[in-house]
């Protein structure tokens, strides 16, 4: 038996706690602005890159000065809409649990409790209306659209950095900015 096998037998295996998806991704209930820096933002182009890659410094400056704010706005809007979508779903889940609990209580009591039945009917009607309202808000469609736009802007910038088609010849920066404008202007499908 090897030394590693002996140590593996001696140490008890730690079980890793796996939280349910609802708890792990529980939505935030505080409002955020699309503008500014967020704690989870990671730099697409780190500030040290300007010094580390002097041949690319002019191109990297284009990201920092002209594109990053537009990317962040779409990125943040996508995160806001994604959180809104999660909040809506959690509200429907909690409402469904309460309505089911009321039905269970009604059955356990043998039925005939008018107040419980009325409360359950009102809650179920509110949940049906809430479901229709949530579907009309299209938060999921909005966050998927904005996420796609943000990632396409980042992809265009990397094509620009690589001097790939259509960024091989003169007017590269103007062409990149036009492409970013076109991406931002695209409507939700």
Structure characteristics:
single chain, 189 residues, mainly alpha, 7 helices, 0% strand
Largest sheet: none
Please bin the fraction of helical residues: 55-70%
* Number of separate helices: 7
Question: Shape from CA axes?
Answer: elongated
Low-confidence stretches: none
- Number of DSSP E strands: 0
The N- to C-terminal Cα distance equals 62 Å
Q: Which series of helices and strands comes N to C? A: HHHHHHH
Beta content: under 5%
Structural class call reads: mainly alpha
Rg result: 26 Å
Overall pLDDT confidence: 85
Outline the fold blueprint:
Blueprint: H1 3-10, H2 21-24, H3 49-52, H4 57-108, H5 114-137, H6 139-161, H7 172-185
Structural commentary:
- The chain has seven helices and no strands.
- The chain has 189 residues and is mostly helical.
- Helix 4 packs antiparallel against helix 5 and helix 4 (57-108) packs parallel to helix 7.
- It is elongated and about 80 Å long.
- The mean pLDDT is 85.
Short description:
It is built from seven helices and no strands. The protein is mostly helical and 189 residues long. α4 runs antiparallel to α6 (139-161).
């Amino acid at each position: 038996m090897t030394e590693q096998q002996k140590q593996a037998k001696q140490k008890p295996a730690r079980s890793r706690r796996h939280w349910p998806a609802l708890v792990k991704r529980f939505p935030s209930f505080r409002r955020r602005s699309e503008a500014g820096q967020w704690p989870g933002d990671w730099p697409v182009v780190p500030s040290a890159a300007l010094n580390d890659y002097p041949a690319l410094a002019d191109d990297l400056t284009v990201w920092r000065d002209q594109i990053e704010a537009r990317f962040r706005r779409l990125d943040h809007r996508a995160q806001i809409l994604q959180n809104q979508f999660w909040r809506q779903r959690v509200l429907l889940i909690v409402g469904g649990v309460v309505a089911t609990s009321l039905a269970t209580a009604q059955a356990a009591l043998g039925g005939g409790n008018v107040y419980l039945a009325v409360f359950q009917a009102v809650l179920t009607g509110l949940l049906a209306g809430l479901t229709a309202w949530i579907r009309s808000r299209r938060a999921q469609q909005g966050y998927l659209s904005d996420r796609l736009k943000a990632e396409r802007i980042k992809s265009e910038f990397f094509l620009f950095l690589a001097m790939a088609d259509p960024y091989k010849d003169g007017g590269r920066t103007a062409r990149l900015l036009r492409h970013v404008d076109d991406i931002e202007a695209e409507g939700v499908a």
